[in-house]
Specification:
The structure is a homodimer. By secondary structure, chain A is an all-alpha fold. Chain A contains 14 helices and two strands, in the order ααααββαααααααααα. Helix content of chain A is about 70%, strand content about 0%. The two termini of chain A are about 20 Å apart.
Chain lengths: ~300, ~300
């Protein structure tokens, strides 16, 4: 494996962020406050994991970055909307995200809700408009809109957030946590990967293995994220142990950090194994799994 | 004009409501509270104006109801999400909508926000999935997703709501109100009509005239709605004069009810005139404009 994963991540992150700025609306008054709030959260950093996975999946089957990039950014817009809404006072009531004040702490609750709504809705305009202008076949655009909206909606991410709120303070089993994680973060991660694959021209067989990769990766990522919350870390930017104080059910919270880390590493290896029939173009996907499954930053 | 408009409206309303129930998710616990909240607002009544306009526009160019119906319902899901979010404490802070408690009064703020998010997102799944299974060409599905998402997003409905909040308590001109109304309600009404037209197989020329119809109709509808708010009415289901107490800028609030009513009637006639080259299949659209432009219920 020749890809230098840290340099790959950093190059992709820059490309995604430049494109995101280009894709966001930038009107004159009086809508500018809404747009300012959209830009604030979009530019508030983050790993850009979902768009990078989308790009890497497209490259893995021979797609070019230019074609997939706006779609990858649209997925990041959907992820960002979900963070803005999750942080709201009536939800997780967080004042900090990635070390800076959350959207509603800066712009107020009404504008934060609307900024989330707008990012979600505009993401579909970006997919439809830029998908078309980038020459993606309309049938593929419809498939990825179906995959992404199903992953983000009541049977995916939003359902997972409702599930999570319902579980707060309750005793839960590992199965329930895996189900919640697969809805709340796994579904959109999977859709990022399958969308990238479809845009890159993946066969049905390749989509099948990309899904296997995505499922193992998604769970490994969530477990590692929850370990980081317990152990703290500079890049998390929120208070250490925030989940425990809110009595959020997490995987390492139940099995302990050591066991959870083992599971995350196993899942990462399972993700890599799913790509055994892919050539070296899938190396970034492979290294992403190993890097994030074992990350200790 | 042979269509009996009240019977047409009532038949279409029933068809839309039956299909909406079928399209909404209906899972087992623990997501059922989210889904209950989605159903609550979807089934809370309303004129179903946007889906009926979508169906009528499709019929006007020769489309069949069966093909357009799920898309029409998806637009109603987007409209319903916008009402749930507009009613939130940080927005308009309304306790009643159509005479019954608002979503957040019943389910709490967190679930209401998520129910809105889910209705918006699931609407795109419905368009992509049912559009495909109903045999609508993928290129047409992509066009209507682009039109609807642009009409609903930062440059349309969400932008209009942000604009409206920014204007509260301020002195505004008629131009500003027309711009706000065209964003907040006009854009999605226009997209309902053009989507229906595209699904029904409208030519570019027909889409042009459907847009002219939609713009005149949308403004007439908003003005009539604002007149009803001033004069009160059983079907509005909210306190008479709610806009005035909140100092919301409205068209009749500036020019007075009599003048506003004249303008609404003129706009309705303008809408009808836009359809002069359409045959009798466009009669429901024509009568809808005259009925709603002059409505006094």
């Amino acid at each position: 494996m020749k890809t230098n994963i840290e340099s790959y991540l950093s190059t992709m992150k820059s490309m995604v962020e430049s494109k995101l700025i280009e894709l966001l609306p930038n009107s004159a008054e009086p809508m500018s406050r809404l747009e300012e709030a959209m830009r604030y959260s979009i530019l508030a950093g983050g790993k850009r994991l979902r768009p990078i996975l989308c790009i890497a999946a497209s490259e893995a089957v021979g797609g070019t970055i230019e074609v997939v990039l706006p779609i990858a950014c649209a997925i990041e817009m959907i992820h960002t909307y979900s963070l803005i809404h999750d942080d709201l006072p009536s939800m997780d009531d967080d004042l900090l995200r990635r070390g800076i004040p959350t959207n509603h702490s800066v712009f107020g609750e009404a504008t934060a809700i609307l900024a989330g709504d707008a990012l979600l809705t505009d993401a579909f305009s970006v997919i439809a408009s830029h998908g078309t202008s980038n020459g993606i076949a309309p049938s593929v655009i419809v498939e990825i809109i179906r995959d992404i909206s199903m992953a983000a909606g009541s049977q995916g991410m939003v359902g997972g957030q409702a599930f999570d709120l319902a579980l707060e303070g309750k005793e839960v089993t590992l199965d329930v946590i895996e189900r919640m994680d697969s809805l709340k973060t796994g579904a959109l991660i999977e859709a990022s990967i399958t969308s990238g694959g479809r845009i890159g021209g993946a066969s049905d067989g390749e989509i099948y293995y990309l899904k296997r990769y995505a499922r193992a990766f998604g769970l490994a990522f969530q477990i590692t994220d929850d370990i980081l919350d317990i152990e703290g870390g500079v890049e998390v930017g929120k208070d250490r142990g925030a989940d425990a104080r809110k009595k959020k059910a997490t995987y390492p919270g139940i099995v302990g950090v050591e066991k959870a880390r083992e599971v995350a590493v196993e899942l990462s290896e399972k993700a890599v194994f799913a790509l055994k029939d892919f050539d070296e173009k899938a190396d970034p996907l492979r290294e992403l799994a190993l890097y994030l499954g074992g990350r200790k930053y």
